[in-house]
Amino acid sequence: MDDSRWLIAASQVLEPARNWEEGGPFAVGISDGTWGRFRTGKKPIKERAFKAYCQVLGLPWKEIIARPPNPNSIQNSALNTKDPADWGDAPDISYFYGRTAELSALEQWIVTERIRLVALLGVGGIGKTALAVKLAQRVEEEFDYLIWRSLRPTLSLPNLIAELLQCLPQQDSPDRQTDPIAQLMKCLHSARCLLVLDAAESVLQEGSLAGCYREGYEGYGELLRRIGLERHQSCLILIGQEPPREISLLEQETECVRSHFLKGLPDEAARGILRAKGLSEEPSWDDLSERYGYNPFYLKIVSATVREMFAGNAG
Ligand SMILES: Nc1ncnc2c1ncn2[C@@H]1O[C@H](COP(=O)(O)OP(=O)(O)OP(=O)(O)O)[C@@H](O)[C@H]1O
Ligand SMILES: [Mg+2]
């Protein structure tokens, strides 16, 4: 049996009602990445996948987990290990209000519906990056690798792909002759990777409503098309103030590309920000939130000003 057959067998154990095909995508938790981690024992995998792999191999999982770890296997395999999560310059979100329904819907898109390309869009300061951090934290366990990169200040496509390829395991050594996007697609196919690209408007022409790229950055269009249209087991979350022109075309072409526009925060969440910023509670809060479009960035700025100038009294 080659590896793919084991992955099909493990998927059948977990979800017997579905038809599993060679090459995936496989059941949740079953992938080349978790299979590799299971075989080498170098990093933990979720119990569900562990038991399924043991079952298809006829191994007694209870006895295996009772055994002390083999120090040699950990040491040897650690030499080939890539860090499964590289958060790049993603911000640490210490407090976050509202957006629970949005988070659940987006989680469902990624985990259950296996959407390959999710565009998170909205005006500056509305909370796209913060929401994406929370979303990526929620779904991280479903992926073998997570890589977060910001395209601000403009990051060229070759540099981005070179960084991504460094973070991901390669089956063959990177070949200078091969198209870099094709090399990346291979990785996205063989492992379940979550890529998050923030500030995507940086590679678009300023103020371009048509989502056209800056000169020299047109290659991003090809990357989005391939991630949206090709069969693989990974997901790209693209964050931006404006959608690149491919997004709406791809949404019409495939079920596996979706976009979500963020609106202002609901009343209660906006009040949460004002409260956290030390404003004293009062009826004028709702007017203040409305005036600033329920935009968390502006609410934070204005509440800091109110606190300094009026000792926390917004009236
Ligand atoms: N739901 C929330 N609860 C509390 N704070 C929030 C929430 N959403 C965003 N914020 C805060 O508001 C500020 C702006 O949010 P964020 O940086 O995510 O906006 P953005 O849409 O990514 O903006 P830009 O397009 O400029 O990158 C940040 O300080 C963030 O932590
Ligand atoms: Mg942002």
Description:
It is built from 14 helices and six strands. The chain is an alpha/beta fold and 315 residues long. α6 packs across α7 (128-139), α8 (157-167) runs parallel beside α9 (180-190) and α10 (219-229) packs parallel to α11 (246-253). The chain has a six-stranded parallel beta sheet, sandwiched between helices. It has helices spanning 3-14, 32-40, 47-57, 61-66, 71-78, 100-112, 128-139, 157-167, 180-190, 219-229, 246-253, 267-276, 284-291, 296-310; strands spanning 85-86, 117-121, 145-150, 193-198, 235-240, 257-261. The protein folds into three domains: 3-78, no CATH class; 85-261, 3-Layer(aba) Sandwich (Rossmann fold); 267-310, no CATH class. The chain is globular. The longest helix has 15 residues, at 296-310. Residues 73-80 have low confidence and may be disordered. The chain binds adenosine-5'-triphosphate and magnesium ion. The site of magnesium ion (MG) has 4 residues, from α7.
List keywords for this structure.
315 residues, alpha/beta, Rossmann fold, 3 domains, six-stranded parallel beta sheet, 14 helices, binds adenosine-5'-triphosphate, binds magnesium ion
Order of helices and strands: HHHHHEHEHEHHEHEHEHHH
**What's the number of domains?**
3
Bound ligands, each once: adenosine-5'-triphosphate, magnesium ion
Query: In total, how many beta strands?
Result: 6
Helicity range: 40-55%
Please tally the helical runs, counting DSSP H or I stretches of 4 or more residues: 14
User: What radius of gyration results from the CA coordinates?
Assistant: 22 Å
Work out the strand percent. Answer: 5-15%
What overall geometry do the principal axes of the alpha carbons give? globular
Q: What integer is the average pLDDT?
A: 86
Can you name the CATH architecture of the largest domain? 3-Layer(aba) Sandwich
Largest sheet: 6 strands, parallel
